[in-house]
Design goal:
The chain is an alpha+beta fold. The chain is about 25% helix and about 25% strand. It contains ten helices and 19 strands. The strands form four sheets. Strands 1, 2, 3, 4, 5, 7, 15, 17, 18 and 19 form a ten-stranded mixed β-sheet that branches. Strands 6-16-8-14 form a four-stranded antiparallel β-sheet. A three-stranded antiparallel β-sheet has the order 10-9-13. A hairpin with a 5-residue loop joins strand 1 and strand 2. The longest helix is centred in the first third of the chain and has 18 residues. The structure holds 2-oxoglutaric acid (AKG) and fe (ii) ion. The site of 2-oxoglutaric acid has 7 residues, from strand 16 and strand 17. The site of fe (ii) ion has 3 residues, from loops.
């Protein structure tokens, strides 16, 4: 099979490394020398170099990956056969990384792929205590976790209460900044539970201009997503923002509200569009695959997992991570000694 192809909607790109242990074998010795949570930028660069060589060897146009966000030709890239999942520990059931550290290889490859698209990985102190790699799996910590980790996820962008880097010149007051991309690495997905996506391009084609115009008014307020321990409110922002000739979307079904009648009405129209099952694209991220989503031109969500969660070590398990443009990363408030954890 050809190692690169467009998906049927034409908005996604699939790149196949063809052998699931290839990157892993090339990386294993080097990765053991560094600690992921304290030296992520050493690891990202190291993995990026290995990926780069592999892409060049396969005669794939590297710029498709490196300019992924700037070109806006694709809204997501799915990398196939990135790592071997046959020796992974059991899926954790309480959101804590397992003691057996073999999951760190997929996490490192995820970091390297995010870095290959020109983004810097970083996390927020108020979410999962600042951990860079978050575990996505049905969790039994308590009833709230249980429900949150298995329910259908409605359309959203990550960190809906964050500003886009272009929205501020500098960040002296500690605004929350949203990531440009969001990555998922799949270790297990036995029930083929899909990550759902909705394209801004389609939203713009489908909604009347008057609704789009109302979504572009700064008449919306948002709050933190439920995975955060701290609450940051953001007021007076648009759902659709324009920077130069580009349009971006921030959205959350539950954390974004309209503050005026016209804003509420526009949001209602957008939700009607999103509720229509014909408008969703479903991506099943299979074990060994990494999905990188543009967090500014794409909304994402997830199938319901309630009937497919058994807490027996074989449940669906993904690792998630954020990627920031250099501008966004520079504007993230952070401490000198911990450059990958925003103090938010
Ligand atoms: O589980 C998925 O496919 C997506 C999860 C998600 O949206 C998230 O963790 O933010
Ligand atoms: Fe999400």
């Amino acid at each position: 099979m050809f190692p690169i192809q467009e998906n049927t909607y034409g908005r996604g790109l699939e790149i196949d490394f063809e052998s699931c242990s290839l990157l892993q074998q090339k990386l294993e010795k080097q990765l053991s020398l560094y600690d992921q949570e304290t030296q992520p930028y050493v690891i990202s660069e190291l993995v990026k170099q290995v990926i780069r060589n592999e892409i060049i060897d396969k005669k794939i146009d590297l710029s498709l990956i490196e300019n992924f966000e700037d070109d806006e030709r694709y809204d997501w890239i799915l990398f196939k056969n990135c790592f071997d999942t046959s020796f992974m520990p059991l899926t954790p059931i309480n959101d804590t990384p397992p003691e057996n550290e073999s999951w760190k290889t997929p996490a490192a490859i995820l970091m390297g792929l995010i870095s290959s698209t020109g983004h810097k990985v970083a996390s927020y102190k108020g979410e999962m205590r600042g951990r860079l790699a978050h575990m996505v799996m049905p969790a039994l910590n308590n009833e709230v976790y249980k429900s949150r980790s298995t329910k259908q996820l409605m359309p959203h962008t990550e960190i809906v209460n964050g500003l886009w880097p272009e929205e501020i010149f500098s960040n002296n007051v500690g605004h929350c900044i949203a990531p440009n991309v969001f990555g998922l690495a799949s270790i297990r997905n036995p029930a083929k539970c899909a990550t759902r996506v909705w394209y801004l391009e389609d939203i713009l084609k489908s909604l009347p201009f008057s609704v789009v115009r109302d979504l572009m008014r700064p008449e919306f307020s948002t709050t933190s997503q439920s995975s955060f321990d701290v609450v940051h409110n953001l007021e007076g922002v648009c759902v659709i923002s324009q920077f130069g000739d580009r349009l971006n979307i921030r959205f959350s079904y539950s954390k974004l509200k309209g503050d005026t009648i016209r804003a509420k009405n526009a949001l209602k129209r957008l939700k009607e569009y999103l509720d229509d099952a014909n408008n969703v694209d479903r991506l099943v991220v299979e074990p060994g695959q990494v999905l990188i989503l543009n967090n500014r031109t794409l909304l994402h969500g997830r199938d319901d997992l309630k009937n497919d969660s058994f807490y027996d070590g074989n449940d669906r398990w993904l690792i998630r991570m954020y990627g920031f443009s250099h501008d966004g990363w520079k504007k993230l408030p952070k401490k000198e000694h911990l450059q990958h954890v925003a103090t938010l």
